[in-house]
Amino acid sequence: MTAVDGTTVQVDEVEEVAEDGLRWLVSTARETADGGLAWPAAPSKEETDPSLYNGTAGIVSVLLEAWRHFADDSYADLALRAGRGLAAAVDGHEDDSLYFGRSGMALVLHTLGDQLGDTASGTAADRAMALVRSHFDGERWGELFELMGGNGGTGLAALAMGDPEFAVLAVEPYLRAAEKTPWGVTWQHRPGPEARMHHMSHGTLGISYALARIGHATGRADLIDLALAGVADVVARDEGGPDGFLVPHSTPQYLPDLIEPITYGWCHGPTGDAQMFRLLRDTDGDPAWAALADRCWHTVVRSGLPERLRPGFWDNNGRCCGTAGVLALAGDRIAEGAEGAEGQEAYDFARILVTDLAARAVRDTDGARWSNVEHRATPSDLEPRTDWAQGSAGIVRELLRFVRLSRGGDPRYAFTWPDQPEVSAQATDPIRRAGTDVAS
What we know:
8 strands
C-alpha cells in the first residue's frame, strides 16, 4: 500500500506542511468588530461560523496545538483573539450542541480560560453553558438526538467543564427513548427516518460513548448498562469478523442514493468504532474490548485507504470522514503500542497516511490547504475548507501530533475532544517510540 506517488515523506517535511497549513489558516481569518478573529468554513463564504465542526471553535483547537508544539506564544495570542470572536457569537448562535453550537463553543472558551488564564473566556464559557441549560426542554434540544448535534455531545461538554450533574441531566432521556432490538438497544437519531444509524457521529455508538463516559464518571450503573446494551447491538451487526470489524452505515440504509453502505472513517466506520472500544477497555477492564479495537484497526489497515480505489470510496482528507481521522487513531495506537510490534505497524501505516496528505496538499505562497472530492460533480475538486471537520484545521492538528510521536514527544493533544479517549497513562512517558529511528 502506497501513497499518491509511491514514496514516503520525512518528518521534517510533515512539519513544514503543517506550518504552511497554519499560515493559510491564519490568512483566512476575519477580524471582528472588537478586534477578535472568526473563520468561515471556506474562504468564499461571507458568514463566519463559530462552531467546533465548521468554524472558529475548531480552529482554536489547532492554534492551541501549534502553541504547544512550537512553544510559540503568537499562536496563543491568535487563540485568545479567536476566543473574543467566540464570546461575541455566544448570544446570537441558534444551536446548542457540541459540534454545531454553544456546547462546543463553551468547551473551547473554558479551555482558553483554563490553559491561558483568560478570565473573559472563562466567563463567556459559563454564560454559554447557562444558555444551553436554559434551552433544555427535559428531553432534548432540537431535532438531532445523538452525539454531534444532540444530548450526548452536550453531556460530554458539561462533564469536561466540571458539571457532572448537568451531564447526567443531558443523557438521562436516552433511558426513556431506547428502542429494544434482538441484541440490545438503539435510538432514533432524529424524528422521521426509519433508518437506525450505528456508529459514532449520529448513531448508537456515539450515544453509548456519552452514556459510558458520564456513567463511569458519576457512578451511574444504569447509564453504563444502557451504554453496553447499545454496544451489544452494534457488535451483533458485525460483518467483518473474526479478524476484522465492519458494520453497515445504517439499517435500513439511510439515503441509499447518496451514502455508501460501508464506510471506514471516524463518522460511520471502524475508525470511530475503535474509539468506543478504547473507552470501554480503559473503563470496563474486559480484554474483549481491546480485542475489538484491534479488529477495527485490522479492517482499516486492509481496507485500501488512503488510495482512491473507485469514485466515492475515499474522497476525503479531513478529520471527520477522511484520512486525518484515521491518522488520529493511528497516533493513539503508536502511543499505546510504544516500542512493540503493534506500535510499529501503526507507525508504518501512519507514515502512509501522512505521505498521502502531504502529496495532496495544495502548496503555494499562501501556504497549504486541501481539497476534498465530490465525484458526482464537475469539477469534482471542492473548495479547500478551513474547519476541523473537513478542512485544514483538523488535518494540521493530526500532522503536528504525528511529528511529536515521531520524535518521541508527548502524544497528548493541547485540546482533547471529549469523544476521543486520551492515550493510556504509560504512553505519556517521554520514551522513544516505534519507527522513529527511520523517520527523522
